[in-house]
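User: two proteins, same treatment. go.

Assistant:
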Amino acid sequence: MAGYLFKNCAAVIVNEGKGPKVHRNVDILTDGPAIKAIGENLSLGELPISTTVQDAAGWFVYPGLVNTHHHFFQCFVRNRADLDWTKLSVLEWLDRIYPIFSRLNEDCFYHSSVTAMAEMIKHGCTTAFDHQYCFPRHAGKRLIDRQFEAADLLAMRFHAGRGGNTLPKSEGSTIPDAMLETTDEFIADCARLIDTYHDASPFSMRQVVVAPCQPVNCYRETFVESVALARDRGVQMHTHVGEGESAVIEARHGMRTVDYCAELGFAGPDTFYAHCWELTQDELRKMAKSGTGVSHCPEPVYLVGAEVTDIPAMAALNLRVGLGCDGAASNDNSNLMHCVHSAYMLQCLFASSRERPVPPPVDFLGYATSGGAALLGRHDIGRLAPGMAADFFAIDTRRMDYVGTRHDPLSLIAKVGIGMPTDLTMINGRIVWQKGEFVGLDEARLFAEAEAALASLEF
């Protein structure tokens, strides 16, 4: 793989392990998948003659964003008036949405994955975790295989969360029988995917996470077996926790969800939960002590959260936090950069009602970069420094949008927001998006194919 030399970057957000700092008027040199150097007046040195030099004057360069929670398949139910949360109760909404999900076919899962990842790349996301828990029986078991195919097409770093639901609706879940699996089916396919795709080497582009959908929709044994498999294979674990189900879990098992998961072993430095907006201070302390992380999804809070996630309390406990888009059932976009802005502004809205101050804007950028990398168990992504993966995005700030903002690149995304696609997105040393185009791909064709797959469904 060739290298690149980006000359005269206006600002680069560098983090050599001691927090982010702004380096002004520097160059970035990449060599294959890695960053070779960041500094002033860099030369090609001993690098191959094929190294490409690009003028980066005016660019603010940021570490690639790391998405830690999504449901790609839900992209096919975006912006639908008949599924408006404001007009339906939760139970009415579930009764309408799951029959739609149960009709998706294999091609739908592929094209919805292309759709979600393409939008993320345009807005600076270089690593995507998806929680794919929808397995209609007619669609077969190769749905995550197709997601890896989509990631390969777009050259995106992809962590696949193999989800699943095992508890029948007749026993209290919200899942139609057409989407149920047995625990044995679920575990067997998790093992197959790990054996086929999981790569734990540096700069890995493919990893697998064992991710039963949520305790309220699964048998106890599903979580017990998930822990056994994940720990045996050395992979991460993920599920939904603290999004309104704790009272149900307590009624079933005599304890709330955090304690229930901990009792089953589904907690620790190799585990992260999505949402967590209804958790008590005591539960947050327990998670911090065990090392369990949180994927905070700010935009769904607008629609479905009864409370605003207490990020200041999590920060005070040094609880590991990343950011996620979540699926289109509760967020109609796949723009993680927009989520950085939303996360910060939402906390500011509630600052006067909280005991602790809102973390500074730069921390929210950290949640979306190094914080997300930590949740996924990655030490090679999430920050810019020599030896780290060449995952970054660039914004040309020589526009009216940025007049008066350029003195503080660290706070720009959280406070001001970025309202347009990046000027460049690089993943693993490869430019995948530049000047409004996916490099080597025909976006019009991708669009037409996705629209055709969507049109094949009858809603």
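Protein 2:
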Amino acid sequence: MEFLKQEVVNKTAVVTINRPPANALAGAVITELDQILHDLETNNDIRVIVLKGEGRFFSAGADIKEFTSIDSGEKAIELATNGQKLMDRIENFPKPIIASIHGAALGGGLELAMSCHIRIVSENAKLGLPELSLGIIPGFAGTQRLPKYVGTAKAAEMMLTAEPISGVDAVKFGLANVAVPEEDLYEETMKLAKKIETKSPASIKAVLNLLTYAKTEQFSQGVEAEAKAFGEVFLTEDAKEGVSAFLEKRQPNFTGN
């Protein structure tokens, strides 16, 4: 694979996103993640999966450059839907997936992390959904998962201000399980993975399946509505301005059009 690396430690598969500089979730990365999940699901020697990022970040979001090639609402909806399908697959995966987050998990990167069963973060990591600073909205089910973890009011604040929170605050608000110094992150993640991998695969699978019953029919409706809204907002002049400003490294000038 071009953008993913895999290492097996005992019965844990460590999957590393390696697409410098920001490990952005380009379409090719999403495709590779889907493929590697297919392979790991049928590998009986693997009981736990750890997902992490190479370099400075876990994942700093979607590939904004790819946005410039989207010229219709249908293509924007397709982009959102493809990402949502991957996140849903991760959330419903029969083996536990632990997100080991350092540096930043922003936008699509946080949406990816939120779909994992467990999140361990470095204390100084930044987690957020900054899409509104680009004149768009989250499109990989972020509007539906973030309130589940931090509550509606905090989710609204995080999305509307586009400001991230630290790893320490992510634990405080229920977005992450534990925050540790960055130099201890991998070791602590693998300690947890080792505790889980000693359990019966059948019991692990049963618990993960039962956890999905907490999802309501409204969640599916919300995700569908998010993809549609993503397509509509993506066509606005403000969205074009936001993407252009990001790529040109300047402040956007939103006019409400």
